[in-house]
């Protein structure tokens, strides 16, 4: 269940930044923050996300598979997991953009496209 938690943290980070007009500036600020908003994932993934480069440490396709498995497990018990379901759908969109072999942080590209279409 670690993968869904990691995904949700990444999605929240990406989603909140993709809605802002000063997206890249905010991403740089947050990824360098040492305050209450700081998290190791932000400082590790943030600089690459600013450059739209996603060297695969954890390929997006593997995280999406883990999300799908977590959803299946949750359904079998039954446990509601609406945030995981939304995250899974977003990762499926990112895969449709050809980002399967990129790092899971490439999901931000799906969020960027969504915010431009909104």
UniProtKB/TrEMBL annotation:
Boundaries of every 3-hydroxyisobutyrate dehydrogenase-like NAD-binding domain copy: 27-110
Lineage: Eukaryota, Viridiplantae, Streptophyta, Embryophyta, Tracheophyta
Protein name stated in the entry: 3-hydroxyisobutyrate dehydrogenase-like NAD-binding domain-containing protein
Protein family according to the UniProt entry: Belongs to the HIBADH-related family. NP60 subfamily.
SUPFAM superfamilies on file: 6-phosphogluconate dehydrogenase C-terminal domain-like (SSF48179)
Organism of origin: Hibiscus sabdariffa (roselle)
Annotated InterPro entries: 6-PGluconate_DH-like_C_sf, 6PGD_dom2, HIBADH-like_NADP-bd, HIBADH-related_NP60_sf
Pfam families with a match to the protein in the record: NAD_binding_11
Gene3D superfamilies membership: N-(1-d-carboxylethyl)-l-norvaline Dehydrogenase, domain 2
Highest taxon of source: Eukaryota
């Amino acid at each position: 269940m670690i993968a869904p938690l990691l995904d949700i943290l990444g999605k929240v980070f990406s989603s909140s930044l993709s809605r802002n007009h000063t997206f890249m500036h905010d991403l740089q600020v947050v990824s360098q923050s040492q305050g209450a908003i700081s998290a190791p994932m932000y400082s590790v993934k943030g600089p690459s996300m600013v450059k739209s480069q996603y060297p695969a440490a954890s390929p997006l396709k593997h995280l999406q598979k883990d999300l799908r498995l977590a959803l299946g497990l949750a359904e079998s018990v039954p446990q509601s997991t609406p945030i995981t379901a939304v995250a899974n759908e977003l990762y499926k969109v990112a895969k449709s953009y050809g980002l399967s072999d990129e790092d899971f942080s490439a999901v931000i590209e799906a969020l960027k496209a969504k915010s431009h279409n909104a």
